[in-house]
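Reading a protein record of the kind used here takes only a little practice. To see the layout at work, look at the sequence and tokens printed below.
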Amino acid sequence: MDLKNMRADKYLVIVFIIFDIFVLSCQRENAEQPSEKILARIGDKTISVNEFIRRAEYTIRPIYCRKDNYIHRKIVLNSLIAEKLLALEAGDENKLVKTPYFQDYLKGRQEQAMRQWLFYNNFYQRVKLSPQKISERMKLVGRKYDISYFSVSDTYVAHKISKTMHDTVDFKIKFNELSNGADLPRRFVQWNNLETREVINALYSGSPKKGDIIGPLKQDTNYIFIKINGWTERVYLSQNTKKQLWEDVKEQMQYDEAKEEYVKFVKGLMKGKKLRFNNETFETLVPIIADDYLKSQEEKKAAFNNRFWKKESHRNDLDNHSSSLKDIIDKPLFTVEGQTWTVRQFELALVSHPLVFRKHNISKSEFAEQLKFAIADLIRDQFITQEAYKHGYENVNVVKRNVSMWRDNLLAIYKRNSWLKLNNKEDEFKSNIIKTIEKDLNPYILSIMKKYNDEIEIDTELFEKIKLSKINSFMTQRNMPFKIMVPSFPVITNHNKLDYGRKMQH
């Protein structure tokens, strides 16, 4: 896939994706429909053990249920059940459900999960590693490398340096030529650092030696050169630690090998497909898109909230962003595979697939180029999604659960906020959440639990075996249209008794 009017060394490359842990944590006995342990049934809705743990551990829990004791675990379960009940109460005919943005958002969540499942099912779970191969990597993972490094952004320059650099003297000379006398950057790298896999694999495979020059390695949009200054070695004595490290190394190596095959698959899928931009429309659009995507995280969150809850915001959608954009909203923006996309069609696509930029810190001067790459990756994902639909992956249970999790969360928030507004409790809830929960929301939730009492089942034996982490964390996934892995914890109730429903029968 190539871009018209871009230099040859800027042609599209396939981006490696870091996948949601929800895919890698699925049961592996049956790849098409992984087994799930159901913790609770609420009408036609269910909560699996995996969903319970992810909702409790992948986002920040309120202070009233943050510990791992039986009382707090019961509050977590009650909160998730209350979320399902509020979603049932909201029904399918409310204003939120009928909002196109809501439907497109859920479609985007579904399709992202489908792409992740395609990677897992068709590539990851098919990789078979020999114990010998894992053992070779295990010999190196205890190393903490001391490296010097520098990077360049131009492909031609990177390869030219590579051809003429042979030793540590050349390494310093090349860096001095590029840096005008600045100090050579230096840092430590460990196997589990948040480095690109290309860097980690280069340092932790084969037989790296002190003084070795490595590179160029692709890192985001740059090429990095590395010199190994030395390393310290950590010895793992505990058998449990060694066992866990073995599993971690195996999983990462399995991912890396699967990724190589996946990249070949995507390259074949995109072979011959051309993306051509209408330069006049694109140049008009760039500053408007830049204004939106270079915002702070707080501004982006406010824009997101406005989409669902109609709060005040300076931007609703692209076609009322400015008068200049209205002039091009129905003009062609780009053409791919004989299909022409207008600005309006592009805007609608962003609801179900927000742009993912390859570079994380983008200046205004380079935004236009990075925007072209982001649009190209959006188109690439559409073709991958089509393949996932061909396999029927929208019907895989973990994909369906991921969608229902987000749908029920948004419906529950909608219903909770509607109830607070109807009862003039909005301001109280904002000023004193716990007091409002105990005084107002708890009685409301208990009344709904009583209403649905005969439709609620809980596997209490399974529940009592669950342990939660005491560490509060907020999990995100890089290089994904939707980065947040699970919805925020439902702030609905702090009721701490299982005094409703019935015990699930096996």
